[in-house]
């Protein structure tokens, strides 16, 4: 029994020793915990996310509120508001860095607010020209003023005391001393491609270039030429090294490792499926599940899977003209943000970038800019395109999402209107407000050209007096009288039909009477004078001047 218990304990220890944590997590006390600078929303998923706002986190943080420390060379400007918000940290100005005391203070006094004066030293390659000063009354804090060393040189060590260019006495990594100046300055020449200097000995010799940069391995070394460095095979990488190809033991970011490096070979790395990736390149053999985040410009529809059939995170590309931050959690299209600041938020029902209501145009394809413009007077937009207000409606401002209908008694017949016109007296607006209609049933139909209500042809009266309850102010002219449209206001303005009849009767009577009288008189006279009566039906011959002239000429010839 005792042997069995010992075996179980040993087996448990072996199992614990074989437990493997996800990327960016370490085994602490038998469980996986996120490394500094990362936190996990759900410890069961073992997916660690990077802290925002240049912050870091205590190991094992499980909420974004755990990100309460500033990352290296960052200073506090604001504490985290609560357990679900991170602190806000700002990076030191270019060329400056925090001195060791400030870094320790920041780590010990978690959440304390500092200022830019904590950036009191210069980074390698810079010398200090002016010391940092803390805030004093109305005078704001100032970081150290750092000047870049000439000729790719650097100082021996960071300092908080004022320095000069003469303190730039060593070369930066990747350069070796080619000339020593009397003042103490050095002239530095670059090492062969990808080679680095092993130390800052200051020797005037290319043999100092004995190391290879990260992502390269040393295939040869000659004291007269320095290291010969070859790039690691595709997808693999390694630390600064003086070793051979086996130093390419890591995978680059957004690759996963299918085979670890051996004595004679580099790690075998494959690119992650489209849209997926990882925060850091894997450092141990795994599978496609190591592609556990969605890179910028994609959103996650399904998390990576290690058990069963391994699978990478399933990532969907954000719509055109939008992007997203890289993420390690399942989210939706709503995590994508359109470049255009005046575009609608993306959602399951809004899957393209378009201008928000009241705006129109082409959305910008450049981040933090806008191509959307406000719709002007007479126009509106509810679909990303500014359209003219239909007839019967109007808009008189900008950024209109709809158009207002004309009020009762008003109309407009043109699209894109900014106001409405009053209907004339005796009328009201038609359905749709695109025109008016006269109340009077005997009026001329309303038209925009005249825009008035008048009585129709052969009617008299005042059509402007008609309304909803009285619609027959225009009356028919009596006795078949006539009138032109709008000319007869009263009955007296109508023309009587009998005036035309009497005129014709009198004319016929007088003509007949005179004709008969004259005829009778002539007949009696001729009869009394025993003269034959004239046949009025005989034709009358008319002689033209030409005929008379010809006859006269003929007579003249006969007389001669």
UniProtKB/TrEMBL annotation:
Domain spans labelled Tyrosine-protein kinase ephrin type A/B receptor-like: 378-423
Signal peptide coordinates: 1-19
Stretches with biased composition (Polar residues):
468-495
Q: Where is the composition biased (Low complexity)?
A: 496-529
Q: Which region ranges are annotated with the description Disordered? A: 468-538
Name the keywords, alphabetized.
Answer: Signal
Xref: PROSITE patterns: PROKAR_LIPOPROTEIN (PS51257)
**What InterPro entries does this protein map onto?**
Growth_fac_rcpt_cys_sf, Tyr-kin_ephrin_A/B_rcpt-like
Please give the name of this protein: GCC2 and GCC3 family protein
């Amino acid at each position: 029994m005792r042997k069995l218990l010992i075996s179980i304990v040993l087996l448990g220890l072996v199992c614990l020793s074989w437990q493997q944590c996800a990327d960016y997590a370490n085994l602490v006390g038998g469980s996986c915990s996120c490394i500094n600078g990362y936190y996990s929303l759900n410890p069961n998923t073992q997916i660690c996310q990077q802290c925002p706002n240049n912050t870091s986190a205590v190991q094992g943080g499980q909420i974004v509120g755990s990100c309460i420390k500033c990352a290296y060379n960052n200073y506090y400007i604001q504490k985290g508001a609560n357990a679900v918000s991170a602190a806000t940290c700002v990076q030191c100005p270019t060329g400056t860095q925090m001195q060791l005391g400030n870094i320790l203070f920041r780590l010990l006094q978690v959440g304390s607010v500092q200022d830019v004066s904590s950036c009191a030293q210069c980074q390698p390659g810079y010398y200090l020209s002016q010391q940092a000063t803390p805030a004093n009354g109305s005078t704001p804090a100032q970081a150290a003023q750092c000047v870049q060393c000439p000729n790719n040189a650097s100082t021996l060590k960071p300092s908080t005391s004022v320095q000069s260019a003469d303190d730039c006495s060593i070369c930066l990594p990747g350069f070796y001393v080619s000339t020593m100046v009397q003042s103490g300055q050095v002239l530095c020449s670059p090492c062969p491609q990808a080679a680095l200097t092993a130390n800052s000995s200051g020797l005037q010799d290319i043999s100092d270039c004995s190391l290879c940069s990260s992502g390269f391995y040393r295939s040869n070394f000659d004291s007269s030429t320095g290291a010969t460095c070859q790039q690691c095979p595709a997808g693999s990488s390694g630390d600064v090294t003086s070793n051979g190809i086996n130093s390419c033991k890591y995978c680059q970011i957004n690759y996963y490792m299918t085979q670890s490096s051996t004595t004679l070979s580099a790690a075998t790395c494959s690119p992650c499926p489209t849209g997926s990736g990882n925060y850091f390149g894997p450092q141990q053999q795994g599978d496609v599940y190591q592609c556990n985040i969605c890179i910028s410009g994609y959103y996650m529809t399904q998390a990576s899977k290690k058990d069963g059939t391994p699978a990478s995170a399933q990532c969907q590309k954000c719509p055109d003209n939008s992007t997203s931050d890289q993420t390690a959690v399942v989210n939706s299209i709503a995590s994508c943000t359109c470049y255009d600041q005046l575009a609608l938020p993306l959602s399951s029902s809004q899957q393209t970038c378009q201008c928000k209501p009241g705006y129109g145009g082409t959305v910008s394809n450049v981040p933090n800019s806008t191509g959307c413009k406000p719709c002007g007077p007479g126009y509106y937009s509810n679909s990303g395109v500014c359209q003219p207000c239909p007839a019967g409606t109007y808009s008189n401002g900008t950024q209109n999402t709809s158009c207002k209908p004309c009020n009762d008694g008003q109309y407009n017949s043109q699209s894109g209107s900014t106001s409405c016109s009053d209907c004339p007296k005796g009328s009201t607006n038609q359905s749709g407000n695109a025109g008016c209609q006269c109340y009077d049933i005997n009026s001329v139909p309303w038209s925009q050209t005249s825009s008035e209500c008048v009585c129709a042809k052969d009617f008299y009266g005042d059509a402007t007096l008609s309304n909803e309850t009285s619609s027959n102010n225009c009356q028919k002219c009596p006795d078949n009288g006539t009138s032109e449209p709008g000319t007869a206001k009263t009955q007296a303005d109508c023309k009587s039909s009998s005036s035309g009849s009497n005129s014709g009767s009198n004319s016929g009577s007088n003509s007949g009477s005179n004709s008969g009288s004259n005829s009778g008189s002539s007949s009696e006279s001729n009869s009394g004078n025993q003269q034959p009566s004239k046949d009025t039906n005989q034709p009358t011959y008319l002689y033209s001047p030409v005929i008379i002239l010809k006859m006269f000429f003929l007579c003249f010839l006969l007389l001669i």
